[in-house]
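Need a sequence for this fold. Nothing fancy.
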Protein backbone atom coordinates (compact mmCIF):
# COMPACT_ATOMS: atom_id res chain seq x y z
CA UNK A 1 0.00 0.00 0.00
CA UNK A 2 1.09 3.58 -0.58
CA UNK A 3 2.33 5.93 2.11
CA UNK A 4 1.59 9.63 2.39
CA UNK A 5 4.76 11.68 2.99
CA UNK A 6 2.80 14.63 4.34
CA UNK A 7 1.48 12.39 7.13
CA UNK A 8 4.99 11.34 8.16
CA UNK A 9 4.35 7.67 7.47
CA UNK A 10 7.38 5.46 8.10
CA UNK A 11 6.14 1.93 8.71
CA UNK A 12 7.86 -0.38 11.17
CA UNK A 13 8.72 -3.56 9.24
CA UNK A 14 10.90 -5.37 11.79
CA UNK A 15 8.88 -8.28 13.22
CA UNK A 16 11.19 -8.45 16.22
CA UNK A 17 10.61 -4.78 17.04
CA UNK A 18 6.86 -5.10 16.47
CA UNK A 19 6.65 -7.96 18.97
CA UNK A 20 8.87 -6.17 21.49
CA UNK A 21 6.67 -3.06 21.41
CA UNK A 22 3.52 -5.06 22.09
CA UNK A 23 5.30 -7.02 24.83
CA UNK A 24 6.19 -3.68 26.47
CA UNK A 25 2.48 -2.97 26.90
CA UNK A 26 2.28 -5.73 29.49
CA UNK A 27 -0.85 -7.77 30.12
CA UNK A 28 -3.72 -6.13 28.23
CA UNK A 29 -6.13 -9.06 28.30
CA UNK A 30 -8.61 -7.04 30.33
CA UNK A 31 -7.78 -3.62 28.88
CA UNK A 32 -8.81 -1.25 26.13
CA UNK A 33 -5.79 -0.45 23.98
CA UNK A 34 -5.79 2.64 21.75
CA UNK A 35 -3.37 2.53 18.83
CA UNK A 36 -2.31 5.85 17.31
CA UNK A 37 -1.65 5.72 13.56
CA UNK A 38 -1.89 1.97 12.85
CA UNK A 39 -1.09 2.40 9.15
CA UNK A 40 -0.88 -1.05 7.57
CA UNK A 41 -1.79 -2.77 10.83
CA UNK A 42 1.40 -4.68 11.67
CA UNK A 43 1.17 -3.89 15.38
CA UNK A 44 -2.62 -3.82 15.23
CA UNK A 45 -2.75 -7.50 14.37
CA UNK A 46 -0.59 -8.48 17.34
CA UNK A 47 -2.46 -6.28 19.82
CA UNK A 48 -5.83 -7.52 18.56
CA UNK A 49 -4.88 -11.03 19.65
CA UNK A 50 -4.03 -9.91 23.19
CA UNK A 51 -6.28 -7.01 24.16
CA UNK A 52 -9.83 -7.19 25.42
CA UNK A 53 -10.67 -4.27 23.13
CA UNK A 54 -8.64 -2.37 20.54
CA UNK A 55 -9.42 1.05 19.10
CA UNK A 56 -7.18 2.11 16.20
CA UNK A 57 -7.15 5.83 15.37
CA UNK A 58 -6.13 6.37 11.74
CA UNK A 59 -6.26 9.65 9.82
CA UNK A 60 -5.48 8.22 6.37
CA UNK A 61 -8.74 7.28 4.61
CA UNK A 62 -7.21 4.49 2.54
CA UNK A 63 -5.55 2.80 5.49
CA UNK A 64 -8.68 3.15 7.63
CA UNK A 65 -10.73 1.42 4.93
CA UNK A 66 -8.11 -1.31 4.60
CA UNK A 67 -8.08 -1.92 8.36
CA UNK A 68 -11.88 -2.08 8.56
CA UNK A 69 -11.83 -4.82 5.94
CA UNK A 70 -8.87 -6.60 7.51
CA UNK A 71 -10.51 -6.75 10.95
CA UNK A 72 -14.13 -6.98 9.86
CA UNK A 73 -14.57 -10.27 11.71
CA UNK A 74 -13.05 -9.04 14.97
CA UNK A 75 -15.80 -7.48 17.06
CA UNK A 76 -13.22 -6.38 19.62
CA UNK A 77 -11.47 -4.14 17.08
CA UNK A 78 -12.77 -0.67 16.18
CA UNK A 79 -11.24 1.59 13.53
CA UNK A 80 -11.72 5.33 14.04
CA UNK A 81 -10.97 7.42 10.97
CA UNK A 82 -10.04 10.71 12.57
CA UNK A 83 -7.24 13.02 13.64
CA UNK A 84 -5.65 11.92 16.91
CA UNK A 85 -5.21 15.60 17.81
CA UNK A 86 -9.01 15.88 17.87
CA UNK A 87 -9.60 12.57 19.64
CA UNK A 88 -11.44 12.62 22.96
CA UNK A 89 -9.63 9.83 24.78
CA UNK A 90 -12.00 10.08 27.74
CA UNK A 91 -14.87 9.05 25.46
CA UNK A 92 -13.02 5.84 24.54
CA UNK A 93 -13.01 4.56 28.11
CA UNK A 94 -15.54 2.15 29.53
CA UNK A 95 -16.49 3.20 33.02
CA UNK A 96 -13.47 4.01 35.18
CA UNK A 97 -10.99 1.87 33.24
CA UNK A 98 -7.64 3.35 32.29
CA UNK A 99 -6.51 3.12 28.69
CA UNK A 100 -3.29 1.65 27.38
CA UNK A 101 -1.82 3.55 24.40
CA UNK A 102 0.52 2.33 21.67
CA UNK A 103 1.74 4.04 18.53
CA UNK A 104 4.48 4.90 16.06
CA UNK A 105 4.09 8.67 16.20
CA UNK A 106 4.59 10.88 13.12
CA UNK A 107 7.74 12.82 13.93
CA UNK A 108 6.44 16.18 12.74
CA UNK A 109 3.61 16.25 15.32
CA UNK A 110 5.10 14.16 18.12
CA UNK A 111 5.01 16.98 20.68
CA UNK A 112 1.42 17.87 19.82
CA UNK A 113 0.32 14.25 20.23
CA UNK A 114 2.11 13.94 23.56
CA UNK A 115 0.48 17.11 24.85
CA UNK A 116 -2.90 15.80 23.71
CA UNK A 117 -2.34 12.56 25.61
CA UNK A 118 -1.24 14.44 28.72
CA UNK A 119 -4.58 16.26 28.78
CA UNK A 120 -6.18 12.87 29.41
CA UNK A 121 -3.45 11.46 31.66
CA UNK A 122 -5.89 10.74 34.46
CA UNK A 123 -7.64 8.19 32.26
CA UNK A 124 -4.49 6.58 30.83
CA UNK A 125 -2.43 3.92 32.56
CA UNK A 126 0.59 3.73 30.26
CA UNK A 127 1.73 4.45 26.72
CA UNK A 128 4.37 2.73 24.61
CA UNK A 129 5.36 5.06 21.80
CA UNK A 130 7.89 5.22 18.99
CA UNK A 131 9.44 8.67 18.69
CA UNK A 132 12.53 10.23 17.15
CA UNK A 133 15.59 9.39 19.25
CA UNK A 134 16.29 13.06 19.97
CA UNK A 135 12.75 13.49 21.30
CA UNK A 136 13.15 10.46 23.56
CA UNK A 137 16.34 12.01 24.91
CA UNK A 138 14.42 15.18 25.73
CA UNK A 139 11.60 13.28 27.44
CA UNK A 140 14.01 11.43 29.72
CA UNK A 141 16.55 14.24 30.24
CA UNK A 142 17.92 15.22 33.64
CA UNK A 143 18.54 18.78 34.88
CA UNK A 144 21.86 20.20 33.78
CA UNK A 145 21.85 18.52 30.37
CA UNK A 146 21.29 20.20 27.02
CA UNK A 147 18.20 18.08 26.30
CA UNK A 148 16.37 19.27 29.42
CA UNK A 149 13.63 21.75 28.53
CA UNK A 150 9.92 22.53 28.38
CA UNK A 151 8.96 19.14 26.92
CA UNK A 152 11.03 17.39 29.61
CA UNK A 153 9.36 19.21 32.47
CA UNK A 154 5.89 18.83 30.97
CA UNK A 155 6.35 15.10 30.47
CA UNK A 156 7.97 14.36 33.82
CA UNK A 157 5.25 16.28 35.62
CA UNK A 158 2.74 13.83 34.15
CA UNK A 159 4.57 10.53 33.66
CA UNK A 160 7.54 8.33 34.48
CA UNK A 161 9.70 7.89 31.38
CA UNK A 162 11.59 4.77 30.30
CA UNK A 163 13.64 4.44 27.11
CA UNK A 164 13.20 0.82 25.97
CA UNK A 165 15.00 0.39 22.65
CA UNK A 166 16.48 2.37 19.77
CA UNK A 167 15.95 1.28 16.16
CA UNK A 168 17.93 2.23 13.04
CA UNK A 169 16.30 3.62 9.88
CA UNK A 170 16.45 0.18 8.27
CA UNK A 171 13.72 -1.08 10.62
CA UNK A 172 11.23 1.09 8.69
CA UNK A 173 9.86 1.46 5.19
CA UNK A 174 10.56 3.93 3.84
CA UNK A 175 13.56 4.43 6.13
CA UNK A 176 13.58 7.79 7.95
CA UNK A 177 16.74 9.88 8.14
CA UNK A 178 17.01 9.47 11.92
CA UNK A 179 17.10 6.76 14.56
CA UNK A 180 13.92 6.03 16.50
CA UNK A 181 13.41 5.17 20.15
CA UNK A 182 10.58 3.34 21.89
CA UNK A 183 9.59 4.93 25.19
CA UNK A 184 7.17 3.80 27.85
CA UNK A 185 5.29 6.52 29.71
CA UNK A 186 3.62 5.39 32.93
CA UNK A 187 1.14 8.09 33.81
CA UNK A 188 1.62 9.48 37.31
CA UNK A 189 0.51 13.14 37.41
CA UNK A 190 2.24 15.09 40.21
CA UNK A 191 0.08 18.22 40.32
CA UNK A 192 -1.55 17.50 43.68
CA UNK A 193 1.69 16.18 45.19
CA UNK A 194 3.56 19.36 44.26
CA UNK A 195 0.66 21.74 44.90
CA UNK A 196 0.42 23.35 41.49
CA UNK A 197 -2.19 24.35 38.96
CA UNK A 198 -1.36 22.63 35.65
CA UNK A 199 -2.28 25.44 33.27
CA UNK A 200 -0.61 28.13 35.34
CA UNK A 201 2.48 26.05 35.96
CA UNK A 202 3.03 25.10 32.32
CA UNK A 203 2.67 28.75 31.28
CA UNK A 204 5.28 29.56 33.93
CA UNK A 205 7.63 26.83 32.62
CA UNK A 206 7.44 28.23 29.10
CA UNK A 207 8.46 31.61 30.51
CA UNK A 208 11.36 30.03 32.42
CA UNK A 209 12.74 28.49 29.23
CA UNK A 210 11.80 31.38 26.90
CA UNK A 211 15.47 32.07 26.14
CA UNK A 212 17.22 28.91 27.22
CA UNK A 213 20.74 30.33 27.38
CA UNK A 214 19.74 33.27 29.57
CA UNK A 215 19.59 33.09 33.34
CA UNK A 216 16.28 31.99 34.85
CA UNK A 217 15.95 35.25 36.77
CA UNK A 218 16.28 37.24 33.54
CA UNK A 219 13.60 35.18 31.81
CA UNK A 220 11.23 35.64 34.74
CA UNK A 221 11.79 39.40 34.81
CA UNK A 222 11.12 39.49 31.07
CA UNK A 223 7.87 37.61 31.74
CA UNK A 224 6.71 40.40 34.05
CA UNK A 225 7.79 39.22 37.49
CA UNK A 226 9.24 41.94 39.71
CA UNK A 227 12.99 41.60 40.15
CA UNK A 228 13.10 41.64 43.96
CA UNK A 229 10.35 39.03 44.17
CA UNK A 230 12.24 36.81 41.75
CA UNK A 231 15.45 37.12 43.77
CA UNK A 232 13.63 36.36 47.01
CA UNK A 233 11.83 33.36 45.51
CA UNK A 234 15.05 31.91 44.13
CA UNK A 235 16.70 32.28 47.53
CA UNK A 236 13.74 30.66 49.29
CA UNK A 237 13.98 27.68 46.95
CA UNK A 238 17.76 27.51 47.30
CA UNK A 239 18.22 28.09 43.58
CA UNK A 240 21.27 30.05 42.46
CA UNK A 241 20.58 33.57 41.24
CA UNK A 242 22.79 32.67 38.26
CA UNK A 243 20.99 29.43 37.40
CA UNK A 244 19.51 28.71 34.00
CA UNK A 245 16.16 26.95 33.78
CA UNK A 246 17.83 23.84 32.36
CA UNK A 247 19.66 23.41 35.69
CA UNK A 248 16.52 23.38 37.85
CA UNK A 249 14.64 20.19 38.70
CA UNK A 250 10.92 19.70 38.18
CA UNK A 251 10.42 19.81 41.95
CA UNK A 252 12.32 23.09 42.32
CA UNK A 253 10.47 24.67 39.41
CA UNK A 254 7.21 23.75 41.14
CA UNK A 255 8.49 25.25 44.40
CA UNK A 256 9.50 28.43 42.57
CA UNK A 257 6.05 28.68 40.97
CA UNK A 258 4.46 28.46 44.43
CA UNK A 259 6.74 31.23 45.75
CA UNK A 260 5.90 33.74 43.01
CA UNK A 261 2.61 35.61 42.56
CA UNK A 262 0.52 34.47 39.63
CA UNK A 263 -2.87 35.43 38.27
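Here you go.
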Amino acid sequence: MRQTPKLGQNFLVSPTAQAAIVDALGDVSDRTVVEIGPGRGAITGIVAGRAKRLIAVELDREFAAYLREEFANRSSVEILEQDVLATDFAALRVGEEKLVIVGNLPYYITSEILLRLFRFAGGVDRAVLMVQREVADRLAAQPGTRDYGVLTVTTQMVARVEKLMTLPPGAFAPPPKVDSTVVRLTMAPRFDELGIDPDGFFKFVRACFAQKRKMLAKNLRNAGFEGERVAAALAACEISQMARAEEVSVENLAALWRELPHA
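For context: Residues 5-189 form a domain with the Rossmann fold fold (CATH 3.40.50.150).
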